[in-house]
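[step 3/7] fold_predict: job queued, chain A
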Amino acid sequence: MVLKDRTLALIKKSFIECFKVAEENLENIAFVQRRNRVGSLHKGLRGDASL
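[step 4/7] structure written:
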């Protein structure tokens, strides 16, 4: 029974770690997408100005 509890605790801990990493990755992806959108907008404005 102790082994089962320990195993469940380890599984729970690894799930929590996994979700934390996934959440950080999502935040990074959102940041990069936002930055890319601003960058492409800036490029578009520069392109229009040169015409």
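[step 5/7] annotate
Residues 21-51 form one domain.
The chain is about 95% helix and 0% strand.
exit 0
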